C-alpha cells in the first residue's frame, strides 16, 4: 500500500524550485498588500519586492553544485544520474543557475530603477506584481526541460510584460506600444505552440531529452512534419530575442514603455529568448542541427546588421533617441548572442557557453547604460542623446560610468569585459568554421563603435551656450543601480574569468 | 650591464605596464594638498611629467639590467594565469627586439609630457589630456611587453580610445572627422587581426607567443597559416600603415596636436611592424613565406607613393601642409620597414627594426619642430610659411632652422645619422632575399626603394630650401622666437640619439640580431 502511495505522489525538491517560487509568492504578496498599504507608504511595496528578489538570489547559493532535478517521471530510476534527469521537467543545473542569476539580478536592478518612477507616475501595486510575475516566469524558463513547461514559462514571462509596457496611464504612446508588443508576441507564441504540437505528434513526448532521443526514429513520412515543427518552435523564442525579422516591435515598444521596463525587456526579455532557443536547439533538436544551424547563422548576421545600421541612423536630436538607440543596439547585440548558438550546430554544445558569458556582460552594462539614461531623463525628459552633451561637466561620475558602459557594449578597452566577451563569441565562430559569420560580425563591431563612440564623445563635449540644468539630487536607488553595475563591470574587467568560465565548461 | 636580480627585473617590467594605468587614474581626482602647485592645470601637467619620468627611469633601469650577452632570451618574464576560460595568461617578457621599442616609448612619452608642461595643449582641461596620454603610454608599453596573442590584441586596442580623444578634443581643423576615420579604420583592421589570432590560437591550442614561436608553425597547416597571416597582416598593415591602407594617417596627423602626432608617428605605427616581427614571422612562417612577395610589392609601392605625394605637397602653390607632408613621408619610411621584413632574412628584419627606431626618433623630432613652427606662424601651410621667396628661418630663428635642417637630413637617410642604416639594410636584404622567394621581383622592389630614397632626398631638400632659406625679409616683420630652453630640453635627447644610432649602429643591431636569428630559425637557440 505504502509503496503504491509514494509512486503516485511526487516528491518535490522544494529547495531546487525555491528561487522562481519565492519570486512568484512575493508577487502575490505585494498584490494583496497593495490593498492594505496607505497611499503614502506605497514605496514599502517596492522595498518588499527588492528584498524578495535579493532573497531569491541568495536561494541560488545552496544549489550551486548544479545537480538537482525535480518533477521527474521516473523517480525510481535513481541509479544513473543522467537517465534520472532525462525525464525531469525541472532541472537546476549550471545553465539554469547562471540564467536565473542573470534574470533575477536583472530584475533586481530594474526594481531599483523603478523605485523613483513608481512614486509618482506608475501605479505601485500593479507595477511590482507584474514585474515580479514576469521575473518568476523568466526564472522558471531556463529550468524547464519539457515543451509544456517551456511554453508556460514563456507566457508567464511575457503576459505581465505587455501590461508593464502599457502601464503609463493616459499615455497614448505607451498603450500603442503595448498593443504592438502584444499582437506580435501572441502571434509568435501561437506559432511556437503549433510547432511544439507537431513535434509532440511525431515523437510522442514533451520532454526535451526524450525528444532528442526519439527524433532519430521518426518514420520517414513524418519527416516534413517534424522539420516544420522544429522550425516553427524556434519562432517564438526568436521573437522574444528580437531577431530579424521579428524585431519591428522593439524600437516603438522600448521608447513607448516606461524607461525601467525598457531596460527590463532589453535584458530579461533577451535572456528569455536565447535561453529558450538554446534549450530547444541544443537540448531538444540536436539531430536537426543541419536545419537550425545555418538558419540561426543567417539570422544572426541579419539581426546584427539590421540593428547596427538602424542604430547608426538615429538622429541624436530627436526625442527619445537615447532609448531608440539602445533599443536598436540591443537588436544588434541579440545578433551577437545568436552566433555561438549557431556555432553549436557545427561543433559542440559547449559553444553556447559563449552566449551565456556574453549575456552576463551585456546584462550588466546595458542595465548600467539604462540607469544613467534614467538619471539624465529626470532633468531632460526628452530622452534625447543630445541631452547628454557635456554630462561630464555637470556630473562627472555618471558620465564616466556611461562612457564605460558604452565602451563595453562597443567592446573596446577600457571596457575589457566587453572586449573579452566579444572575443569569446568570435572564438566560437572561428572554432566552428563559420569564418564568414565572424567577418560579418567584425564589420558590425566597427559600425557599432561608430555610434557608441559618437555618444561617448558627446558626454565630454564642453557644454556650449545651453544653460546647464539645475543640478538635482540623484535618487538613491538609481545611484545604487549605477554603482552596482559599474562595480560589477569593473570587477569583471579585472577578473573576466568569472563571466567567461561558462564559455568553456559544459553547462548541462 | 648592471646585475639586477630577476625579481627586480620582473617588477620593473610589470611596473612599466601598470604604472601609467595607475598614473592615469590618479590624474583624474583633484591633486592632494602639497602637490597643488600654482593651479590645478599646472599640477596635473606636472603629475604627467613625474609619472612618465619615473617610467622612463624604470625603462632605463630595465635596459641596464638586461643581459646584453643573451638578448635572444626572454628576460624579466612573468607568467600568471589570468582568464582560464580563454587560456589567456599575463605573460610578460622582454628581449632584444622589444627592449629598444620599450625604451623609445618611455622616452617619447616623457618628452611629450615635458613639452606639454611648458606648452599646455590648446583645448579643454589638461586633466583629461594627461590621463589619456598615460593611458596611451600604458597601451603601447603593454603591446611591446606582452607575450600572449589575446593580451597583445587587448593592448593593441587600448591605444585607440585615448588617441581618438587626443585628436578629437585637442586637435586642429577637421579633427572630429580625422579622429573618427582613425579609430574606425584601425578597429576594422584589428578586428580582422583578432580573427587571425584566434585562428592560430584555436588550431595550435595555445595563445602563448613563445610556445608558438618554438613550434615554428608545426601543427598549423599551410592553408591555416596563409589565412592567419592574411588576417593578422591586414590588421597590422592598417596600423603600420601600408599603402594602400594608409589613408587615415595623413588626416590624423594633420589634425592631431603636436604631442599626439609625435606619439602617433613615433610609437603607434611601430606596433604594426612589431606585430609582423613578433607574431607573423615566427608563428606562421609558411604563411609569411607565401605572402611575403605581396607584402614587399605593397611596401615598394608605398615607398614610391609616399615620396611622390610629398613631392607634390612640397611644390610651390600646392597648399601643402607640413604635418601632412611628414605623415606621407612616414608612409614611405614604413615602406622600408615592411620591405625589410618581407625579405625574411636576418639582414632585412634587423634593418626593419633599426629603421623602426630611427623613424621613431627622427619623425618624432620632425613633428615637434613642425608643431613649434605652427605655434609661431599659426599655420603649417608651406605656401603661407614660405611666401614668395622662402621663410628664411636660418636668418630669423637660426637654431630652429638648423634643427629642422638636421631632422630633414637625418630623415632622408644621410650616412652617419640614424636614418641611413635601416633603409640601407632593407635594400641590401632585398638584393638577396630568403631562399624560395622570387629574386627578380625583389630586385625590382630594391630598385623602386632606391628610387624612393632619391625622391625622399628631393622633397626634404625642397622643404629645407623653402622653410629655412629665403631672401631678405620685409622690414617691420614681427620677431620670431628662437628655440626656447624647454624645447631644447625636449628635443636634445632625440637629436643625440639620432647621431648616436647613426655613428654606432652596433649598439642597436647587437641587441636585435641574436633575437631575430632565433625567431627566423624557429625559436630554438
From TrEMBL, chain B:
<keyword id="KW-1133">Transmembrane helix</keyword>
<feature type="transmembrane region" description="Helical">
    <location>
        <begin position="99"/>
        <end position="118"/>
    </location>
</feature>
<feature type="transmembrane region" description="Helical">
    <location>
        <begin position="400"/>
        <end position="421"/>
    </location>
</feature>
<feature type="transmembrane region" description="Helical">
    <location>
        <begin position="138"/>
        <end position="161"/>
    </location>
</feature>
<feature type="transmembrane region" description="Helical">
    <location>
        <begin position="182"/>
        <end position="202"/>
    </location>
</feature>
<feature type="transmembrane region" description="Helical">
    <location>
        <begin position="293"/>
        <end position="313"/>
    </location>
</feature>
<comment type="similarity">
    <text>Belongs to the complex I subunit 4 family.</text>
</comment>
<feature type="transmembrane region" description="Helical">
    <location>
        <begin position="43"/>
        <end position="66"/>
    </location>
</feature>
<protein>
    <submittedName>
        <fullName>NuoM family protein</fullName>
    </submittedName>
</protein>
<dbReference type="InterPro" id="IPR001750">
    <property type="entry name" value="ND/Mrp_TM"/>
</dbReference>
<feature type="domain" description="NADH:quinone oxidoreductase/Mrp antiporter transmembrane">
    <location>
        <begin position="148"/>
        <end position="432"/>
    </location>
</feature>
<keyword id="KW-0812">Transmembrane</keyword>
<feature type="transmembrane region" description="Helical">
    <location>
        <begin position="441"/>
        <end position="464"/>
    </location>
</feature>
<feature type="transmembrane region" description="Helical">
    <location>
        <begin position="351"/>
        <end position="373"/>
    </location>
</feature>
<feature type="transmembrane region" description="Helical">
    <location>
        <begin position="222"/>
        <end position="238"/>
    </location>
</feature>
<dbReference type="InterPro" id="IPR010227">
    <property type="entry name" value="NADH_Q_OxRdtase_chainM/4"/>
</dbReference>
<feature type="transmembrane region" description="Helical">
    <location>
        <begin position="259"/>
        <end position="281"/>
    </location>
</feature>
<dbReference type="Pfam" id="PF00361">
    <property type="entry name" value="Proton_antipo_M"/>
</dbReference>
<dbReference type="InterPro" id="IPR003918">
    <property type="entry name" value="NADH_UbQ_OxRdtase"/>
</dbReference>
<feature type="transmembrane region" description="Helical">
    <location>
        <begin position="325"/>
        <end position="345"/>
    </location>
</feature>
<keyword id="KW-0472">Membrane</keyword>
Amino acid at each position: 500500500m505504502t509503496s503504491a502511495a509514494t509512486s503516485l505522489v511526487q516528491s518535490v525538491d522544494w529547495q531546487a524550485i525555491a528561487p522562481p517560487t519565492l519570486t512568484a509568492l512575493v508577487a502575490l504578496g505585494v498584490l494583496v498588500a497593495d490593498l492594505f498599504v496607505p497611499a503614502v507608504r506605497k514605496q514599502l511595496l517596492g522595498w518588499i519586492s527588492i528584498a524578495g528578489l535579493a532573497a531569491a538570489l541568495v536561494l541560488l547559493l545552496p544549489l550551486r553544485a548544479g545537480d538537482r532535478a525535480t518533477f521527474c517521471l521516473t523517480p525510481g530510476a535513481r541509479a544513473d544520474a543522467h537517465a534520472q534527469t532525462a525525464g525531469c521537467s525541472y532541472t537546476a543545473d549550471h545553465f539554469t543557475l547562471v540564467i536565473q542569476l542573470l534574470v533575477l539580478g536583472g530584475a533586481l536592478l530594474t526594481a531599483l530603477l523603478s523605485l523613483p518612477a513608481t512614486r509618482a507616475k506608475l501605479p505601485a501595486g500593479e507595477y511590482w506584481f507584474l514585474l515580479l510575475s514576469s521575473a518568476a516566469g523568466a526564472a522558471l524558463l531556463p529550468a524547464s526541460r519539457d515543451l509544456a513547461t517551456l511554453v508556460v514559462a514563456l507566457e508567464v514571462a511575457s503576459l505581465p510584460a505587455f501590461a508593464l509596457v502599457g502601464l503609463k496611464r493616459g499615455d497614448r504612446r505607451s498603450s500603442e506600444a503595448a498593443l504592438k508588443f502584444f499582437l506580435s508576441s501572441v502571434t509568435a507564441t501561437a506559432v511556437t505552440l503549433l510547432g511544439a504540437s507537431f513535434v509532440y505528434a511525431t515523437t510522442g513526448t514533451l520532454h526535451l531529452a526524450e525528444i532528442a532521443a526519439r527524433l532519430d526514429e521518426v518514420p520517414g513520412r513524418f519527416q516534413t512534419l517534424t522539420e516544420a515543427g522544429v522550425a516553427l518552435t524556434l519562432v517564438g523564442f526568436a521573437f522574444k530575442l528580437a531577431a530579424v525579422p521579428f524585431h519591428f516591435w522593439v524600437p516603438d515598444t522600448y521608447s513607448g514603455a516606461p524607461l525601467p521596463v525598457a531596460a527590463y525587456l532589453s535584458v530579461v526579455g533577451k535572456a528569455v529568448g536565447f535561453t529558450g532557443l538554446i534549450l530547444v536547439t541544443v537540448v531538444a533538436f540536436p539531430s536537426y542541427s543541419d536545419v537550425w544551424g545555418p538558419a540561426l547563422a543567417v539570422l544572426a548576421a541579419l539581426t546584427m546588421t539590421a540593428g547596427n545600421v538602424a542604430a547608426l541612423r538615429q538622429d541624436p536630436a530627436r526625442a527619445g533617441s537615447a532609448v531608440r538607440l539602445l533599443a536598436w543596439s540591443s537588436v544588434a547585440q541579440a545578433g551577437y548572442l545568436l552566433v555561438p548558438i549557431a556555432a553549436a550546430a557545427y561543433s559542440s554544445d559547449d559553444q553556447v557557453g559563449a552566449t551565456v558569458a556574453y549575456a552576463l556582460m551585456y546584462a550588466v552594462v546595458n542595465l548600467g547604460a539604462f540607469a544613467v539614461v534614467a538619471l539624465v531623463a529626470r532633468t531632460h525628459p526628452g530622452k534625447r542623446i543630445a541631452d547628454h552633451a557635456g554630462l561630464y561637466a555637470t556630473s562627472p561620475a555618471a558620465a564616466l560610468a556611461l562612457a564605460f558602459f558604452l565602451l563595453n557594449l562597443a567592446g573596446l578597452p577600457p571596457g575589457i569585459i566587453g572586449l573579452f566577451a566579444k572575443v569569446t563569441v568570435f572564438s566560437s565562430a572561428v572554432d566552428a568554421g563559420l569564418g564568414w559569420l565572424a567577418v560579418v560580425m567584425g564589420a558590425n563591431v566597427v559600425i557599432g563603435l561608430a555610434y557608441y563612440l559618437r555618444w561617448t564623445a558627446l558626454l565630454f563635449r564642453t557644454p556650449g551656450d545651453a544653460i546647464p540644468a539645475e543640478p538635482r539630487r540623484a535618487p538613491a536607488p538609481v545611484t545604487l543601480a549605477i554603482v552596482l553595475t559599474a562595480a560589477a563591470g569593473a570587477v569583471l574587467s579585472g577578473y573576466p574569468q568569472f563571466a567567461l568560465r561558462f564559455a568553456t565548461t559544459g553547462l548541462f | 650591464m648592471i646585475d639586477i636580480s630577476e625579481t627586480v627585473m620582473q617588477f620593473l617590467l610589470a611596473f612599466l605596464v601598470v604604472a601609467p594605468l595607475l598614473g592615469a587614474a590618479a590624474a583624474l581626482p583633484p591633486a592632494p594638498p602639497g602637490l597643488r602647485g600654482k593651479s590645478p592645470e599646472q599640477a596635473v601637467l606636472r603629475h604627467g611629467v613625474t609619472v612618465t619620468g619615473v617610467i622612463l627611469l624604470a625603462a632605463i633601469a630595465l635596459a641596464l639590467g638586461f643581459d646584453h650577452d643573451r638578448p635572444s632570451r626572454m628576460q624579466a618574464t612573468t607568467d600568471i594565469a589570468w582568464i582560464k576560460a580563454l587560456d589567456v595568461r599575463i605573460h610578460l617578457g622582454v628581449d632584444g627586439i622589444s627592449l629598444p621599442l620599450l625604451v623609445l616609448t618611455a622616452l617619447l612619452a616623457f618628452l611629450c609630457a615635458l613639452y606639454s608642461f611648458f606648452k599646455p595643449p590648446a583645448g579643454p582641461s589638461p586633466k583629461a589630456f594627461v590621463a589619456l596620454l598615460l593611458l596611451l603610454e600604458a597601451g603601447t608599453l603593454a603591446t611591446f611587453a606582452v607575450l600572449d596573442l589575446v593580451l597583445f590584441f587587448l593592448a593593441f586596442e587600448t591605444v585607440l580610445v585615448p588617441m581618438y580623444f587626443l585628436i578629437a578634443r585637442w586637435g586642429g581643423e577637421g579633427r572630429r572627422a580625422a579622429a573618427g576615420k582613425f579609430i574606425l579604420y584601425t578597429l576594422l583592421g584589428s578586428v580582422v587581426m583578432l580573427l587571425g589570432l584566434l585562428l592560430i590560437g584555436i588550431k595550435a591550442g595555445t595563445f602563448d607567443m613563445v610556445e608558438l614561436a618554438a613550434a615554428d608553425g608545426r601543427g598549423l597547416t599551410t592553408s591555416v597559416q596563409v589565412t592567419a597571416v592574411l588576417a593578422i597582416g591586414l590588421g597590422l598593415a592598417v596600423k603600420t600603415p601600408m599603402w594602400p591602407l594608409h589613408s587615415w594617417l595623413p588626416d590624423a596627423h594633420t589634425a592631431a596636436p603636436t604631442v599626439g602626432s609625435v606619439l602617433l608617428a613615433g610609437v603607434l605605427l611601430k606596433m604594426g611592424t612589431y606585430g609582423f616581427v613578433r607574431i607573423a614571422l615566427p608563428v606562421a612562417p609558411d604563411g609569411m613565406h607565401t605572402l611575403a612577395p605581396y607584402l614587399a610589392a605593397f611596401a615598394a609601392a608605398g615607398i614610391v607613393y609616399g615620396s611622390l605625394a610629398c613631392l607634390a605637397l612640397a611644390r610651390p602653390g600646392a597648399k601643402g601642409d607640413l604635418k601632412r607632408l611628414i605623415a606621407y613621408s612616414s608612409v614611405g619610411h614604413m615602406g622600408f620597414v615592411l620591405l625589410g621584413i618581407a625579405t625574411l632574412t636576418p639582414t632585412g628584419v634587423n634593418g626593419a627594426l633599426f629603421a623602426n627606431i630611427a623613424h621613431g626618433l627622427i619623425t618624432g623630432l620632425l613633428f615637434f619642430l613642425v608643431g613649434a613652427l605652427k605655434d609661431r606662424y599659426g599655420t603649417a601651410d608651406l605656401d603661407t610659411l614660405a611666401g614668395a621667396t622662402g621663410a628664411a628661418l636660418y636668418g630669423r630663428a637660426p637654431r630652429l632652422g638648423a634643427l629642422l635642417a638636421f631632422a630633414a637630413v637625418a630623415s632622408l637617410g644621410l650616412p652617419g645619422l640614424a636614418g641611413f642604416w635601416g633603409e640601407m639594410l632593407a635594400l641590401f636584404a632585398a638584393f638577396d632575399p630568403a631562399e624560395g622567394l622570387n629574386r627578380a621581383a625583389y630586385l625590382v622592389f630594391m630598385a623602386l626603394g632606391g628610387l624612393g630614397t632619391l625622391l625622399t632626398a628631393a622633397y626634404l631638400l625642397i622643404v629645407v630650401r623653402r622653410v629655412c632659406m629665403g631672401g631678405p625679409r620685409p622690414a617691420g616683420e614681427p620677431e620670431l622666437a628662437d628655440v626656447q630652453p624647454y624645447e631644447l630640453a625636449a628635443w636634445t635627447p632625440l637629436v643625440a640619439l639620432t647621431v648616436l644610432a647613426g655613428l654606432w649602429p652596433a649598439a642597436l643591431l647587437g641587441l636585435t640580431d641574436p633575437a631575430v636569428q632565433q625567431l627566423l630559425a624557429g625559436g630554438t637557440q
